[in-house]
Amino acid sequence: MKYTFGPVNSRRLGLSLGIDLLAEKTCSYNCIYCEIGVSPVTTCDRKEYTPTAEIIAEIDETIKNQSASKPIDIFTITGNGEPTLHSGLGKIIHHIKERTDKPVAVLTNGSLFYRADVRKDLFEADIVIPSLDAARESSFRKINRPAACNRLSEIIDGLVLFSREFSGKIWLEILIVKGINNTPEDITALQQAVARIKPDMVQLNTVARPPLEKYAMPVSQEELKRIAQELPGKVEIIADFSRKKKEKNRIANESEILHILQRRPCTASDICEALNLDTDSTTNALLHLEKSEKVIQTEHQGKKYYSAP
Ligand code: SF4
Predict the structure, then answer these.
(1) Which class does domain 4-239 fall in?
(2) Which CATH architecture has domain 241-309?
(3) Which of 16, 19, 125, 18 shows the shortest CA–CA distance to 72?
(4) Which one of 156, 160, 197, 205 has the lowest number of neighbouring Cβ atoms within 10 Å?
C-alpha cells in the first residue's frame, strides 16, 4: 500500500487508518522537532502532489479488505509533510464520508487556513487537529522555520476564521520546546491566540521522538502542567504512549513494522502499542531487520529508536 497504513492504535484517536497524501516530504514548515526529516523545500503551493484518483482507489481497496478483527475506527489524513498542500484533500474527505460512516480526522500544521479553499476542503472532516506552537513571530520562525509565504498573523487569523465556520471538533496542538517557545512572553502570546481561536481542546505536547535538530529539547512534565494551567479552555497534556499498559498479543510481522518505521522513528514499545504486537516477537523482528540493514537504531533521551533509512 502506497498511501494508507494501519490501522494502528493512535494515542489520540483509537484504531486509525492513516492516509498519507504526499509521497515525498512536502511541507510549508521545516520544524526543528520534525520527526520525519528535513523539508527539502518549504512551500505554500497547493497542487495535486500525488494522483487523487490513486489515493481514492487505495482507500476503497482498504475499506473493502478491512479485517473483521481489526475494524477501522477512524480515518486519519496526515502526510509526509502538510496534507492541506494537496489540492485533492476536499475530494478525498468527501469520498471517505460517502463510503463509510466512520469519522475523518485531519492532522495539519494550520499554516494554510488563511485560504478559503483550504478551510472549505476541511468542512466535511469530523476532527481537525491544527498546530500552533508559537504566537510570537520570533519564536514561530525559530521553531517552525516556515516558508517565506507564511505570516504568523495571517495563520492565527485563519485559525480564528476556521473555528467560527467549522462545525466539527478542533483540537489545537501546541508543542513546547525548551528555551524556544516556553518563555513567559511566549505563553502570554499563546494564551491570547488560544482565547481568540477558541478550540474545543488544546493538546499540549513536547519533544518525544528524535527531533530533526538535536537542540530541540523537551520540557518537563511539571512545566507542561504549569503551562496547561495558564492556557484558557480545556487543555490536555498528551499522555506518554509507552506508559499505557495493554494486552499485546499479535505476532510481529516485519513488513508491517517497516511500514510504520518508514513514516517515523519509533521505540520497540511504540511499535507494540501501535500495532498491538507481542513484545518478544517485535524485539526479534527488529533484531532481524537491523541485521539485514533495513532499519537503523539511534538513541534519544535514553531511549532506543528504530527508523527505516
Ligand atoms: S509541520 Fe509537521 S511535517 Fe511539517 S516540518 Fe513541522 S513537524 Fe514536520
Answers:
(1) alpha beta
(2) Orthogonal Bundle (1.10)
(3) 16
(4) 160
Give the global pTM. 0.85
Beta-carbon contacts of residue 51 (< 8 Å; ≥ 6 apart): none
Mutate to test the pocket of ligand 1, among 26, 30, 44, 82 (most ligand atoms within 8 A of CB): 82
- Ligand 1 contact via 27 beta carbon (within 6 Å): yes
Atom 8 in ligand 1: residue holding the nearest Cα: 34
Cα 69 to Cα 50, 65, 301: the distances in Å are: 31, 12, 36
Q: Which three cell numbers stand for residue 231?
A: 492556557
Q: How far is the CA of 309 from the centre of ligand 1 (A)?
A: 18
The CA 26 to ligand 1 mean position distance, Å, reads: 9
Place 158 in a pLDDT band, splitting at 50, 70 and 90.
very high
**Domains of the chain, residue spans:** 4-239, 241-309
With a cut of 80, say whether residue 240 has pLDDT above it: no
Model confidence over 129-146: pLDDT tens digits? 999 999 999 999 999 999
What percent of the residues of the chain are helix, what percent strand, and what percent coil, each to the nearest 5?
Answer: 35, 20, 40
